[in-house]
Each structure stands twice: as C-alpha cells, then as structure tokens.
Amino acid sequence: MFVKVLKEVPKGVFLLELFSARLRNAIGDETNRAFADKCSISEGALRNYLKGHTTPDLDTLRKISEVSGYNLGWLASGEGATKRGEGREGAGAPAAGSGELQGQDDRYCSIPLYDVTASAGSGSLVDQENIVDFLHFKTSWVKTTLLASPNDLCLIHVQGDSMIPTLDPGDMLLVDIRHRNSMTIDGIYVLQFDGTLLVKRLQRLLSNTIEITSDNPVYKPMSVRLDDLPTDFTIVGRVVWMGRRV
C-alpha cells in the first residue's frame, strides 16, 4: 500500500534552519509580501518561518507548495525531487510531493504523520502537532477502498491498552478528519476531550445517544447524549486504517 517512508528526523521535522533555507529557495526573486499574499498568509508569519521561529501547518505548507511549484515533501524534509514534475534522474529518491511520486503523476499521495498519540487508555496531552514524516499510499486505494480524499487524511500513533486486542500500543492510525464533529457511521474514532486525544469505538443508539466503548473489557463503556456533549469534546475523525509492526 505505502511504498516509501521518508527518513526519520528529530521532533519538529522541519529542522527550522534547514526549512527556512528551503523556503527561501521557494520564494525565489519574489518579495516576501507578494509571496505571502499568494499563500494567503501574513507577511509577519512568513518572516517567522524564514527566521526559524515557527513552522507552517500542513494546509499552509500545501499552499506554499502550490504557489512555488516545489514539492510538499521536499519543503518539509528535504527528501525527493525539489520541484513537482521532475524526473527520477539525479533525484536520488522518490519525491514526497503534493500527492505525487516523481515521474508517476498522481498515482501516489503523501499522508502526514504527526507527533501526537491517541491514547487507548486515559488520554495523551496534545503538546505539539508537528509533522514528523510522510507515508505514501496509492491514491486509487485511498479513494476506492477507503472512500476518502488524501487531503482529509493524517497519521498518528496509539498508546495505552484500552483498545486491545483491536489496537496495540504503537499502532499507526490513518484518520479521516472529514468526519470531524460528525458521526456518520459506527466505528473507531479519535476524540479530543479536555486537551487529550482518545481513540474509542462509537456507536449511535436511540434517543440521540452515543455509546463510547473500549474493546478491552476491563474498561467500562460510557453513554453520552449528543445534546449534552461538553464544549471541549470534539470528534477529530474516524479511523479508516491501521498499521502495525510484526
């Protein structure tokens, strides 16, 4: 399904100084203000990226890729072909760019892996949400098997034991965030509650009620009326695939 994982990098994948240099290449001869306007960001935000103070989120990085013509994966990690549409020769590795591998059009899409975990237990605080890697999946598989759009997917890891035997600590989850704050079908969802991420099984019951359960019978289920959900409770997305080391 996925064909290449980019090299591992420390937390804060962009390695701020290196990312700022790649961003400067992407800007080229344009003024900061003109480039920022095209990317729908403030000039101040762009300056912070260039100084290495902050890094863009995924949506902004995609926009920078679209405006500049530079590959998404190269901007994030320095891996693969520099620009979209470049051939294999001299590139050294398949590109991780904006839904494509070099020379293969849109046959593959790159899905970001975030440095957060969804706890299958008591919860994991969300401290930072940096992209730490990209995994490549066949676009046709994502669309026809998962019935999802690559732009709506992200990857996170699991910790805790409340979803054993379905999910083990360390498992990787592919989450469809198109289902944010909605529950179209029963299934396994990633939830955010009181600043923590949880992965639980949701089932819709009568009387506008959701049952939140763990697959590990040690953990007791909970029932919550949709009308009574706390303001800090969010359905982040539905789990559509999981990967596991053997």
Structure description:
This protein has 246 residues and is an alpha+beta fold. Helices cover 21% and strands 30% of the residues. The chain contains 6 helices and 11 strands. The chain has helices spanning 16-27, 32-38, 43-51, 58-68, 72-77, 139-144; strands at 2-5, 108-119, 124-125, 131-138, 153-159, 172-176, 187-193, 196-205, 209-213, 222-225, 233-243. Strands 1, 2, 3, 4, 5, 6, 7, 8, 9, 10 and 11 form an 11-stranded mixed sheet that branches. A hairpin with a 2-residue loop joins β7 (187-193) and β8 (196-205). α2 (32-38) packs across α3. The longest helix has 12 residues, at 16-27. It is elongated, with a radius of gyration of 20 Å.
